[in-house]
Specification:
It is built from 14 helices and 14 strands. The chain is α/β, with parallel strands linked by helices. The protein folds into 2 domains: 332 residues, Alpha/Beta hydrolase fold, catalytic domain (Rossmann fold); 77 residues, Immunoglobulin-like, CATH 2.60.40. The N terminus is likely disordered.
Length: 421
């Protein structure tokens, strides 16, 4: 079709920008050594981002609360906003399928510290799971296919909430690609997506997948950003350890002539779409054998509006290139929870605090703090409890929220607070 070359020209410019500086962080990360990481069973820390900010970053379709299918969380790639990535691609595609969705808008066009972006994903998972009353699926592009794994790795309570994680060219092991010189100054997310960054070491420590979640990693052999990506055994996007159910598949394994590269695999590619839908509509990860051969004759995935695709892709490109990310001279330090080394000090403890916690919409919900029941209250239409840590001895105290979903499945959430004494 005549419009396709126009879209691909825009795509090429964007992709070249994304990879700038990624390799520059290799030396500093290696020099720092490899930390000893927290076990996968360590409870997740309290979120540092205010709830109001996390709520404001989540846009959901009206059908979320009444869905009879697993709703989908959409997570954008580095440099794009959620609108750039999804408003003209997978939001309309999911609407056509009758699947509810939410799009989380990661801070600073997903160029900020990915550890902070992970908190947005944690909150989105918990919120969607509570509102839908069922497990959710996640579709992410590039960083967006990788950062949900940070949530699952360091917040174990989110694992039973996620049925499928589907990544389009996910940067699961970073990239070895040496981009143009950035003069020692890159965005936080770019530093962290270097293949030898401390962030990548933490993300993939102990195991890459978890039991009960299906992982579908869709990559393209024409990827010019996340490299290597020639095969499932050595490719960055592929996952190979842990006890989750895994499918690693190149679009060329289904359609040998598929030419979509890093950016377009997550926006336009009908093969990637078919694999994602297969994962959403079947138990377990995608099975390439179920994708019909007629998919190879398609130009775009069904969410694309042929009448507006040039305008839509151009608007996304303008938004992307108009955003100037904050830059830093080195990779951000790992958060202390990644190594279970958070110090209990006057600056970090919470014994003098009294605050409100929002409670998910569950049936028969109970909340305990240190084993003692807390009184549930309703404020502004939401169920809350007051957590009072004043006057407690130094140590830790656990908040537990228990209840049942509308389908009768038991849900338990825990949050650990450190007290000073």
């Amino acid at each position: 079709m005549s419009r396709l070359p126009v879209v691909r020209r825009a795509v090429t410019v964007t992709c070249l920008t994304v990879v700038a500086c990624l390799s520059a962080g290799v030396a500093s990360a290696a020099a720092a050594g490899t930390p000893v990481f927290a076990p996968v069973t360590a409870p997740g820390p309290a979120l540092s981002v205010p709830v109001a900010k996390l709520d404001a970053a989540l846009l959901c379709s009206p059908s979320l609360a009444k869905t009879t299918k697993a709703p989908v969380l959409l997570v954008q790639g580095t440099g794009a906003s959620a609108k750039d990535n999804w408003s003209w691609t997978y939001e309309p595609a999911l609407d056509k399928l009758g699947i509810a969705w939410c799009a989380v808008d990661l801070p600073e066009h997903a160029t900020a510290d990915v550890q902070v972006a992970g908190e947005y994903v944690v909150h989105a998972i918990r919120t969607m799971h509570a509102k839908a009353g069922r497990r959710i699926a996640i579709i992410g592009h590039s960083q967006g296919g990788m950062v949900p794994r940070w949530a699952l790795r360091f917040w174990p309570d989110t694992r039973p909430m996620v049925d499928d994680l589907i990544g389009f060219a996910p940067s699961n092991h970073g990239t070895t690609l040496a981009g143009p010189s950035c003069g020692g100054s890159c965005s936080a997310a770019n530093w962290q997506q270097a293949d030898t960054s401390n962030f990548m070491k933490a993300l993939n420590s102990f195991q890459e997948t978890f039991k009960g979640t299906s992982y579908t990693n869709i990559y393209t052999r024409t990827d010019e950003v996340v490299q290597p990506n020639k095969d499932a055994k050595t490719g960055s996007s592929s996952l190979r350890t842990g006890d989750g159910a895994i499918t690693n598949v190149a679009t060329q394994d289904v359609c040998p002539t598929d030419a979509y590269e890093h950016l377009t695999i997550g926006l336009l590619d009908p093969v990637a779409y078919a694999l994602a839908v297969d994962a959403l509509t079947h138990d377990g990860p995608a099975d390439p054998k179920r994708v019909p051969l007629t998919t190879c004759a398609q130009v775009y995935q069904p969410g694309i509006n042929l009448a507006t695709v040039v305008q839509d892709s151009s608007a996304a490109l303008i938004s992307y290139e108009g955003y100037q990310p904050k830059t830093y001279p080195s990779e951000p330090a790992l958060a202390c929870y990644t190594t279970a080394s958070c110090a209990v000090t006057a600056a970090s403890c919470t014994s003098r605090r009294r605050f409100t916690v929002h409670v998910p919409q569950l049936r028969g919900v109970t909340v305990t703090l240190g084993g003692r029941a807390l009184r549930l209250q309703r404020k502004s239409g939401r169920l809350v409890v007051t957590v009072d840590l004043r006057g407690r001895k130094a140590g830790t105290v656990v908040l537990k929220i228990r209840g049942r979903t509308s389908s009768g499945r038991t849900v338990t959430q825990t949050r650990t607070y450190r007290t000073c004494g």
